[in-house]
Write a structure and sequence with these properties.
There is one protein chain. By secondary structure, the protein is an alpha/beta fold. The chain contains eleven helices and seven strands. The protein has a seven-stranded mixed β-sheet. Helix 2 crosses helix 3, helix 9 packs across helix 10 and helix 9 (222-236) crosses helix 11 (261-274). The chain is elongated.
């Protein structure tokens, strides 16, 4: 083969080969988002979150997650955590609030958000984080899998780490509406149709068992719902008397057909807008 043909082949291979990831200055930000095509860690200048003191009705799970995160930030052993349960009850808000609270005590812990659809790339991400002197809270929000979804296999790279093991400087916090990360009807269908029912869904169900912490979130009571709203109003300087707040908040939840922290925040957003009060999160 002529030398010029070999040169052209070599140049073509260089063009299609992935460019090595240039790691960001981890000291310049506390939060990053992992993106692919091409692989990159994008710094987040300002994280959208609420103060941990404003999260009502989750005291027990808040304290457990806070202590686990403190241990990890200090270089001590810590568990991966699965926050599961009712929608809108502050699962993702708690993860971000805990990260901020721990960093307020001693800056240095980084949070990296990983999208569920990017799970197949998690091995590459862990490879980049493994050699860093920083400690990373890897955050995957709204995690769940359907019957034909193979992404759950990639998640094991974070939970078990394969032959290398999970990086000592990385811990995973994930949120999900499902305790076992898969629909209950799918579990029952596979059990009923499989030759060996006990093994039919063991691989997927056991995925949640690999989280050291299971933190459950349940629907809030009416008193907790009203306390959430009152806390937001006091924090953001929204003046409203108790009777008006009670009447409007109850009507708001009735029109939404639900009562949760998210519904409480939506009411406060509407109330602040009507009263001309700016909200700074």
């Amino acid at each position: 083969m002529p030398p010029d043909a070999l040169t052209r082949i070599a140049e073509a291979l260089e063009r299609i080969s992935p460019v090595p990831l240039a790691l960001p200055d981890f000291g310049a930000a506390q939060a990053f988002v992992w993106q692919v095509s091409p692989d990159r860690l994008v710094p987040v200048e300002k994280v959208s979150r609420v103060d941990i003191s404003l999260l009502v009705g989750v005291a027990r799970v808040r304290d457990i997650l806070l202590e686990n995160t403190r241990q990890f930030a200090r270089g001590l052993p810590a568990n991966n955590a699965l926050l599961w349960g009712a929608r809108g009850m502050g699962k993702s808000s708690l993860v971000k609030a805990v990260h901020a609270a721990v960093n307020a005590e001693g800056p240095g812990l980084k949070i990296v958000e990983l999208q569920r659809e990017d799970l197949p790339s998690v091995g590459r991400l862990l490879g980049h984080l493994r050699g860093s002197k920083h400690r990373f809270l890897l955050f995957c929000d709204d995690l769940s899998f359907s019957h034909d979804d193979e992404h759950y296999k990639s998640l094991k790279a974070v939970l078990d780490g394969g032959i290398e093991g999970r990086p000592e400087n990385v811990v995973l916090y994930a949120t999900s509406n499902r305790r076992h990360l898969m629909p209950r009807e799918m579990i029952e269908n596979e059990r009923g149709s499989a030759i060996n029912p006990s093994e039919a869904v063991e691989e997927k169900v056991s995925l949640s068992d690999r989280f050291g912490l299971w933190l459950g979130f349940h629907p809030c009571s009416q008193d907790e719902y009203l306390a959430m709203i009152r806390g937001y109003c006091d924090a953001f300087g929204i003046a409203i008397d108790a009777d008006t707040l009670h009447a409007e908040a109850i009507e708001w939840q009735a029109t939404r057909g639900a009562r949760s922290g998210r519904v409480a925040w939506q009411y406060v957003t509407d109330l602040a807008g009507r009263r001309g009060v700016a909200i700074r999160r």
